[in-house]
Automatic annotation (TrEMBL):
The keyword Membrane applies. The keyword Hydrolase does not apply. The chain crosses the membrane at residues 59-78, 84-102, 111-134, 146-164, 171-192, 198-217, 233-253, 259-277, 282-299, 311-331. The lineage of its organism: Bacteria, Pseudomonadati, Pseudomonadota, Alphaproteobacteria, Hyphomicrobiales. It comes from Pseudovibrio axinellae. This is DUF2157 domain-containing protein. Keywords: Membrane, Transmembrane, Transmembrane helix.
Length: 353
């Protein structure tokens, strides 16, 4: 915006009159206000904006990290293990390397995508440390749920420390995955490995707990402006498949029928309604695969070949995603109408144009 001093000088030089200067100031002020509103609207345009990368530099560094650890696993794991180092020791060295890289790329440089990659590698490495310690010198026949318990405990504890140090949002998802692994390991130990009968319940409880934590962070940042929205995004991305799979998995692995196909469609619509209310598309993604199976089941009665059935199902599923994605704000406005004026809306993102 032109400064007031410049305008005063232009008036003194006879370039413009005092009246013209006042009108120009009013015009430029109005333009600045409108531009600020446009920028604010653009900032809120995508309520699920997640900080993955600030440019190709982040992708390039992440690629380098993946190459380094691929080389470490493929080229060095066997030689180091054959020379007397245990799995725990080799994985521990990898974890130390990750920590040192995180000190630079995460703590110092604040790079988002490399931090996500390093968090995942660190969790896996520390899980392998626990697994290696639990299985060292134990015969295969003697294994029970102890290795999974110890592995999950190591991954969980290390993820907590990693989060305390680096504050990477996706680390919370690793923590919740570690909790789930710990529960499954304990059930496997108590039931002598007969854990399959309890997996659906563990998945459901873990998913609901993860969803509750995600909503906690969402409620702290309804305008989606801080790192709390990133934390919530990753937790939603873990919670949704856990909940959906616990409800629908038996239908597809045992006896898919018309009733189960209808149930799948109903679950997808329920998840869609919840996703619209909380303004989280990530909640809906997990249910899409089951919707695809349901569509394929109903289309199977038609005289389609296998390739035609697959293609038609994918086209219908993709069309559904495109339609919902294009009209997301309109659909959300409709779903939110019954909640207008209630206390619940204070914990939810505002309706956007």
């Amino acid at each position: 915006m032109i400064s007031r001093a410049s305008l005063t000088g232009a008036v003194s030089s006879g370039i413009i009159s005092s009246d013209q200067a006042d009108k120009l100031v009013s015009y430029l002020t109005l333009q600045a206000d409108n531009l600020g509103k446009i920028h604010a609207t653009e900032k809120l345009h995508d309520p699920e904006e997640v900080r993955f990368t600030r440019g190709f530099h982040d992708i390039f560094i992440s690629l380098g990290i993946l190459i380094v650890f691929t080389g470490y696993c493929v080229g060095l794991w066997s030689p180091l293990s054959s020379n007397g180092l245990s799995t725990a020791a080799v994985a521990g060295v990898a974890a130390v390397i990750v920590w040192l890289l995180a000190e630079w790329f995460t703590k110092k440089k604040k790079l988002a995508l490399p931090s996500i990659v390093l968090t995942g590698i660190f969790g896996v490495a520390m899980g392998l440390v626990g697994f290696g310690l639990a299985t060292q010198g134990v015969s295969k026949s003697a294994l029970d749920g102890t290795p999974l318990t110890v592995s999950s405990l190591f991954a969980l504890a290390s993820a907590v420390i990693f989060y305390w140090r680096f504050k990477v949002p996706i680390t919370l998802t690793v923590i919740m995955a570690g909790v789930m692994g710990l529960i499954i390991g304990q059930i496997s130990y108590l039931t002598n490995g007969q854990v399959n009968d309890y997996l659906s319940w563990v998945s459901l409880v873990s998913g609901m707990l993860t969803f509750a934590f995600a909503m906690y962070f969402d409620a702290k940042d309804v305008n989606r402006e801080t790192l709390n929205t990133d934390k919530a995004f990753w937790l939603h991305l873990l919670a949704a498949p856990l909940i959906v799979h616990s409800i629908l998995s038996d239908a597809y692995f045992e006896n898919l029928t018309g009733l189960y196909a209808l149930l799948s469609i109903a679950v997808v619509f329920v998840f869609g309604a919840v996703a619209l209310v909380i303004d989280r598309r990530a909640m809906l993604v997990a249910a899409l695969s089951y919707l695809g199976f349901a569509l394929a089941y109903f289309l199977n009665s038609a005289d389609f070949s296998a390739s035609q059935l697959t293609a038609t199902s994918l086209v219908l599923l993709g069309s559904f995603v495109l339609l919902l994605g294009s009209g997301w704000n309109v659909a959300r406005r409709i779903v939110m109408r019954p909640l207008a004026g209630t206390a619940l809306t204070t914990y939810l993102p505002p309706i956007r144009n």
